[in-house]
Amino acid sequence: MKNIYFLLIILSFSLAFNESVAAQNDSSGIYVNGNDFSSGKLSLAINCATEEHKIKLNDFFNKPYIIVKHNDSSYNFMKKDLFGYKMCNGNIYRFNGEKDLLLLNPAEQILIYSHIPNRTRGLTNVTSYYFSINATSPVQLLTKKNLKRAYAANQKFVNEIDRKFKYNTELAAYDKYHSVYKINWIYQITIK
Fold it and tell me: Which residues does 161 contact at the CB level (< 8 Å), separation at least 6?
C-alpha cells in the first residue's frame, strides 16, 4: 500500500513538472533583461494555447518602442530598455538598436543571432550573424576578429578559431553530429 502512495506522489510531481515545462514552451511575452531571459522569466506572458495578446513592434516606421496588448490593457516599452521577446511559435528575438535579432541557440553558451534585412525589391538579401558572450553582454557582429577579442583570455579557443574557420561566414555553421553550433562545440572543448 505504501508503494502505491509513493508511486502516486511521484506521478503527481512528474505531471506538474511536465505541465510547467509545456506552459513555458507554449508561451509568449517579453524579457525585460538578460537575467530574465537566462532564468526563463517572461513578463506579460500568456499561454498561447488558451490566451491571446499582441506584440506590436512598430518596425515599419522605425519607432523606438513596442506596444504589448495584454488582457484589456496596452503597455508601451522602449526597445532599448528590453532584452527581447518570445513569440508563440517559440522564436526568441533580442533587440539590438533598430534591429530585432532572431536568437538561434537559446540554450548554448555563446549566443548566436541572425538578422535578415527587409526585402528590397530587386536586391538579394544577405543574412548577417551576430553573437554575445551571454545574455547580459552586448551583441557584436559575428567575425573572427570580434570573437578573438571577446575571448582573448582563452588562448586555446582563439587558436582554434584560426585553425577551424577560414572565413567569417563559416562561424555560424551548425554541427549536426553534436547538435550545437560549431563555435560552441569548440569553445566547450577549450574550457575542459
Answer: 144, 147, 148, 183, 186
- Beta strand 27-31 pairing with 84-86: antiparallel
pLDDT top residue among 33 and 13: 33
58 torsion bin: left (phi>0), alpha (psi -120 to 50), beta (else) = left
Element counts in the chain: helices (H) and strands (E): 5, 13
Percent of the chain with pLDDT over 90: 67
DSSP secondary structure letters along 106-145 = TTSSSEEEEE-PPPPTTS----EEEEESSTTSPPEE--HH
> pLDDT per residue over 40-86, tens digit each?
999 999 999 998 888 888 877 778 899 999 888 999 999 999 999 99
Whole-Å CA distances, 79 to 3, 98, 109: 54, 8, 24
Angle 107-128-30 (CA atoms, 0-180°, nearest 5)?
A: 45
